[in-house]
Amino acid sequence: MFRPLDKYCRKLKRELCCPRKLKNGFVRDARRMAEDFIKGNPGVSFDEVQRFLGEPRELAEYFMQTLDPAVISRHKRNTRAAAVTAVSLALLIAAACMAFTVYASNERKTAVITREVTIVIGEETNDE
Predict the structure, then answer these.
(1) Helix (H, G, I), strand (E, B) or coil at 109
(2) 98 vs 96: CA distance, rounded Å
(3) Of 60, 74, 76, 96, which has the highest C-beta tally within 10 A?
(4) If pLDDT is split at 50, 70 and 90, which confidence band does 125 have?
(5) pLDDT value for 87
(6) CA-CA distances (angstroms) from residue 36 to 2, 4, 70, 74?
(7) Closest C-alpha among 12, 2, 32 to residue 40
């Protein structure tokens, strides 16, 4: 019974667009309600549990309506900023890799390999 409940909770979590702390708390409360329903009704099927809770999307929409709109807009703004930062960083890394590849390929062409012997002449010291 808990495997379908885990799947239900994952779907519910994906549907919620709010800060992680609120999301985890709501999913925990929904799981607790489902577990209490199962304990109160032995032999109940998961379809009945889902009818009791509702579809994950419906439950998420209901919860989102109870939140302050400022919290939701701030979360969306932060999520968007994080996504833009991640994409920018990925593009910067890709550009750096390409620049290094171009530099390394040009450097190899201009390298001159010579064989030189270096002789160091210094004063002789008596260690005896």
Answers:
(1) helix
(2) 5
(3) 60
(4) low
(5) 96
(6) 13, 15, 33, 34
(7) 32
